[in-house]
Design brief:
Number of strands: 13
Shape: globular
Distance between the termini: 64 Å
Strand order of the largest sheet: 2-8-7-6-5-3-4
Structural class: alpha/beta
Bound molecules: pyridoxal-5'-phosphate
Helix content: 40-55%
Strand content: 5-15%
Number of helices: 23
């Protein structure tokens, strides 16, 4: 139990008090607390055997070389500070709407800086008696937020979404291959099941089998014959199905885990950039017709380029239908980006709210403005169905507003961990938490400071409507208004020439992609050229960003990744279909609106007016050449 009661119904956070702020508005609190925490550490050292003699005497500190060395350190740090100030990205500012970055939480930054001086290593409890516990607790908090039972599930912090994804499929791969290994060692346990049935056992049935194998004292022997010991091939484990919109970490995962990139099958997305569930079904049918097992299916919640939310509920339904026909696959949600947004759907008791009541509360409590039409029903249902997945990736260093490097993976059934553990197996049998994290995770030595930062953020800001929901609400309100403004903008003039701007699609979440075109231009390459130059003028490409008025990111949507999904967007901008068919890609500006400040100090009309004025100036520069 901590110091505070987290289930206090009236506990709400004020979002403005959570960040240092674009103008360092909270600098007084920040510096005082930082100094206090540094002092605490300094005193802690002195208080450890107070009568021990100092290692360095005052006389030694008077020596010239000693002073020179301190000066050298200081000069280096001044140089570093100069470099950081000259070229760093101003993520705290609403003028930055590019990658998945924003201001980060004071609680996280202060916790991180305080902890770093103690330098805990969460690989082993022995090296991190304070922070291993915080990591386990943060994992449980994430389990609850994502719809898993924290007492049965398992979650921990990774360096990011990449490693979280690797870990999920490391587990899935070993799990899928387990029943065949059982057949080799303990055929009686799987009597009456043919190979195809063994390759299609539902996850919970495989885990029950793990329990039986342990009871027969054959676990190590069987596990050595799973993919962990003997590797995998398409023939034995099959294919991994992902949406075309997947993050590139999935290609790396297929490579590293021996699944093979050939066996990573991209499923087409619809023109809203969500995986087409009908195509998914047809793809599964095609593979089972050739007796190729489906190792797993990945749904992305918050695609990296468009913020699209795959229809998790439909995929879960599909899996249930297939299980009735004897076909099963591991189901993972890549919520690296969108996972934290589940907080806005949960009431103070962490219950998923009814849509009507939820919206009423959002509007009443100013969490999402009532002029914002969000979420679409499929997005609501997708978040609701998270608990149907076997595991979920979620990044505290994205929508958790925690500094790098903080990702996380959570799994529904912690029994699954023994399939990847390398030491002290069965720890969970005693109901304990593992003390040697390094044995259960992909990474080894890692900063306990990260765990402290994630834990502190979760303690200050409950993972539901009272806490994170309020930050997420600001982000979504900002993004949807940005989208609405782009959509409503009539043609505008620059140097006597008319231009239009158009958003790619109504965002499922908080990423707004858009492109400009000159009115009358029907040449896709020319339109791309305009947007590419706009990007260059809105990024580090045009010099130090501190002099830039507005900074963004970009992406290119091409047919090899997206099929014809962008065709309708290109058409709205006045580009004929033949151009799209010929070029097969379109360049867009991409704004991830994590900023909690877009709705503050300035109404969105003001923000929009400023934004448009800046873009007109930039277009003016391009046209002049
Ligand atoms: C960012 C992202 C990742 C990778 O996460 P890192 O934290 O950069 O390792 C994976 N999947 C999705 C959908 C992402 O948005």
């Amino acid at each position: 139990m901590g110091w505070f009661k987290r289930d206090n119904n009236s506990a709400k956070v004020n979002v403005d008090a959570l960040f240092l702020g674009p103008k360092s508005e909270n600098q007084g609190f920040f510096t005082n607390t930082l100094n206090f925490l540094m002092e605490e550490h300094i005193q802690w050292r002195r208080d450890f055997h107070p009568d021990d003699k100092p290692a360095v005497s005052l006389e030694e500190q008077d020596e010239q070389l000693y002073k020179d060395t301190l000066r050298r350190t200081k000069e280096t740090l001044l140089e570093l500070s100069g470099k950081l100030k000259t070229t760093s990205m101003p993520w705290f500012s609403p003028r930055y709407l590019g990658h998945m970055n924003s201001d980060t939480l004071m609680a996280a930054n202060l916790a991180y800086m305080a902890t770093i001086l103690y330098n805990p290593n969460n690989c082993a409890f022995e090296a991190s008696p304070a922070t291993t516990g915080l990591e386990i607790q943060a994992g449980k908090q994430l389990c609850t937020m994502l719809g898993f039972d924290a007492n049965k599930g398992w979650g921990h912090i990774t360096s990011g979404g990449h490693v979280a994804n690797y870990e999920a499929f490391w587990v899935a791969r070993n799990l899928k291959s387990f029943p065949m290994a059982v057949k080799a060692v303990l055929p009686n346990l799987v009597k009456g099941l043919d190979d195809w049935q063994l390759l299609n056992l539902p996850v919970s049935k495989v885990l029950d089998l793990v329990d039986k194998v342990k009871a027969a004292n054959k676990f190590d022997e069987v596990r050595a014959l799973s993919a962990r010991g003997v590797g995998m091939s398409k023939e034995n484990l099959g294919v991994l199905l992902v949406p075309q919109s997947r993050h590139y970490s999935w290609a790396k995962a297929a490579d590293i885990l021996g699944i093979g990139t050939d066996n990573l099958i991209n499923v087409q997305v619809k023109d809203n950039y969500r995986m087409d569930v009908n195509v998914l079904k047809a793809t599964i049918d095609k593979f089972i017709a050739t007796k190729t097992p489906i190792l797993g299916v990945v749904a992305v919640v918050g695609t990296t380029e468009e913020g699209a939310v795959d229809e998790v509920h439909e995929i879960a339904k599909l899996r249930d239908e297939y299980e009735k026909q004897g076909i099963s696959f591991y189901f993972h949600i890549d919520g690296a980006y969108g996972g934290y947004a589940r907080a806005i759907f949960l009431d103070e008791n962490d219950k998923f709210m009814d849509m009507h009541k939820m919206k009423h509360r959002w509007h009443e409590e100013g969490i999402i403005h009532k002029d914002i039409d969000w979420p679409p029903i499929d997005v609501y249902e997708a978040y609701k169905a998270f608990s149907e997945a076997d595991s979920i990736t979620v990044d505290p260093h994205k929508m958790g507003y925690v500094p790098y490097a903080a990702g996380a993976v959570v799994m529904k059934d912690r029994r699954i961990l023994d399939l990847i553990s390398y030491f002290a197996a069965y720890v969970f049998e005693k109901g304990n938490d593992p003390m040697l994290l390094g044995s259960y995770i992909l990474e080894g030595s890692k900063a306990g400071a990260t765990a402290a930062a994630v834990w502190a953020s979760h303690e200050v800001i409950p993972l539901n409507i009272t806490g994170y929901g309020r930050i997420i609400g600001r982000s979504i309100t900002g993004a949807q208004r940005f989208y609405m403004s782009l959509k409503a903008e009539p043609a505008f003039e620059v140097n006597g020439k008319k231009y239009i701007v158009h958003p790619l699609t109504k965002p499922d979440f908080n990423i707004v992609d858009f492109a400009f075109n000159a009115v009358g231009n029907t040449d896709l390459a020319k339109m791309d050229d305009l947007n590419e130059k706009l990007y260059e003028l809105s990024s580090y490409n045009s010099g130090p960003v501190y002099a830039n008025d507005w900074i963004t990111s970009k992406t290119s949507l091409a047919t090899d990744a997206y099929g014809d999904a962008p065709a309708s967007f290109v058409a709205v901008l006045g580009i004929p279909k033949e151009q799209w068919d010929k070029q097969k890609s379109v360049y867009v500006l991409r704004s991830c609106v994590l900023s909690p400040w877009l709705i503050k100090n300035t109404t969105y009309n003001e923000y929009w007016g400023t934004f448009l004025k800046i873009m007109q100036e930039k277009i003016g520069k391009i046209v002049k050449g």
